[in-house]
Amino acid sequence: MSQQPLPLDGITVVAVEQAVSAPFATRQLADLGARVIKVERPDGGDFARGYDTAARGLASHFVWCNRGKESLAVDLKDPRGLDIVHRLIADADVFVQNLAQGAAARLGLDAATLCAAHPRLIAVDISGYGPTGPYAHKRAYDMLVQCEAGLVSVTGTAEQPVKAGIPAADIAAAMYAFSGVLAALVRRGVTGRGGPVEISMLDSLTEWMGHPLHYGMHGGEAPARTGVAHAVISPYDAYITADGEQVLLSVQNDREWRRLAEQVLERPELGIHPAFATNTARTANRAQTDTAVARALAGLRTDEAIGRLEAAGIACARLNSVKDVAGHPQLAARERWREVDTPAGPLRALLPPITLPGGAPARMGAVPALGEHTDALLRSVGMKDEDAAALRRDGVVA
């Protein structure tokens, strides 16, 4: 059987994007075969290029979110620059933008305007809080939205709420934008028409708050913050082993608790003791439960603890550092790492999570330098070299 092409081969995406939410969404499209044209400012480009220099002098956020794209550096405030982008959109299948609220509309780049002019176009507006309502024009950085969506209130210890260690609001919006584009492409295949796609960071992250939100709305109060422990299941926490590492284990039912007590804690009487025999009892007596488990694991090396837990059928995991994850044996065994080209040379990158057996491999293209593809893209819209040179002299493109 011949290899199937990537599912988005032949799809062209134009993106006026910055930071994480839109770039991460369009990177998913690029990995699946789409051609993604990234529109950046000539004076520095996407500001995520300057977040840090951790990736051999490049910004880690930018390397993560922007492989496989073509970079067009153009000044959208100049009518000549804006015209170039509109010409590219006329031949595109998808347009994505996450400019500040109202900025896209002032440029004629909002989804409603573009879809009225191009009926087959799928145009995505990503905003912080949506286009209407009292928060529509409020600044919406990731951590701010984590706070507004309540994520920070349920993350951390009993004493201290903390933000998620990843840009959860940005990622949530990105993945709904990605899936929204795929759904709209399917609909276009049936109806022949594209249409607007509207994504808000607050809507996206609040959806991810489903468990604590429903627990609180219907149960009277939100689950308590419990660090890495589970709010309503016990034992479900990380415990220090004899060699100073931490192992997280999770007991999902009372049968598992009895096996844990017998085979790992070596205290079978705890399996049937009224203070521990049910999850309700163990949660009510969480401190005593944790003390019993912690005492047992403190006497075992990490490998020994993992071995005993797995032999007893107890779900468990090492509490890995970022360095540990980079060398994770499961990722290595499944050959999930590749190298992508960047302006600083090849860098390791993880294969995208969507695997399509029997199809072409993910297109993990290079991370572009700012304006790397400007000249080629100007020629693609019919611009003569002398006109392009004039725009470059005037600072309209870079």
- Overall geometry comes to elongated
Largest β-sheet summary = 6 strands, parallel
The beta-strand count equals 11
Report how far the terminal alpha carbons are from each other: 45 Å
Mean pLDDT: 96
Residues in helices, as a percent range: 25-40%
Give me the side-by-side strand order of the main sheet: 3-2-1-4-5-6
* Beta-strand fraction estimate: 5-15%
What structural class do you assign from the helix and strand content? Answer: alpha/beta
Can you count the helices? 17
Verbal overview:
The protein has 398 residues and is α/β, with parallel strands linked by helices. It is 39% helix and 14% strand. The chain has 17 helices and eleven strands. It has helices at residues 21-31, 60-65, 79-90, 103-106, 111-117, 142-148, 168-191, 201-208, 210-219, 254-263, 279-284, 286-298, 302-311, 322-326, 329-333, 374-380, 385-393; strands spanning 12-16, 35-40, 69-73, 94-97, 122-127, 195-200, 236-240, 246-250, 315-318, 337-340, 347-350. Strands 3-2-1-4-5-6 form a six-stranded parallel β-sheet, with helices on both faces. The chain has a three-stranded antiparallel β-sheet with strand order 7-8-9, covered by helices on one side. A two-stranded antiparallel sheet has the order 10-11. A hairpin with a 5-residue loop joins strand 7 and strand 8 (246-250). The longest helix is centred in the middle third of the chain and has 24 residues, at 168-191. The two termini are 45 Å apart. The model has no long low-confidence stretch (mean pLDDT 96).
